[in-house]
Amino acid sequence: MYERFWKRYCDKRGPVLEFGGGVGWFARRLTRHAKVFECESNAFARESLAQIAPEAIAVEDLSTMETDSVSSIVALHVLEHIPDDALSAIFAEFDRIARPGARFMFVMPDLDGAAHRAKGEGWSAFTDPTHINLKGHDAWQAFFRSVGLKPVQTFADGFYDFPYAQTLAGRAVFDSLRLARTGIQFLLARPLLKSGDGENIVFILERAE
């Protein structure tokens, strides 16, 4: 689904940077379409990248990348692991290496999302102690505007941690509806679920005028 969202909104047939892509499974998908750089600080992940996505170019530090060198930047479940002050410095580098007209795709847990409301303290995003920067979709939008980006599309990616309802009847009715809507969006790769209607928030952004 994320691959198809990237193709829909970000694919300009130019190089793409995946920031914090781990061992390279998504980079492998992206190499079907474009030249891929993957910035990953973990040495084990970079070694795995060479096996999983050998066509991707491993980058240890953004400062080594050339100015105006990529047409899109992707980070899937990365930003919530980094505090805002460090993110501001990272986004300054993003601004430097992104070409004019570049697009950005970011996915993070949504603190104001329906999944958190349903699960409360049992929400899956709370189980990872490295999630040090959990925000709601409005707070993330304010942060992106503060670093010079404006949303092109903002939507939820659905529900994945069933059950959500507390009763059998609720699971039969409401969880079935959640599953159906998530499945339809997945199959169509269209932004059908509005911000706040799921586990995570998806942002497609570009530079503000």
From TrEMBL:
Pfam families: Methyltransf_23 (PF13489). InterPro entries: SAM-dependent_MTases_sf. It comes from the Bacteria. This is Methyltransferase type 11 domain-containing protein. It comes from Hyphomonas beringensis.
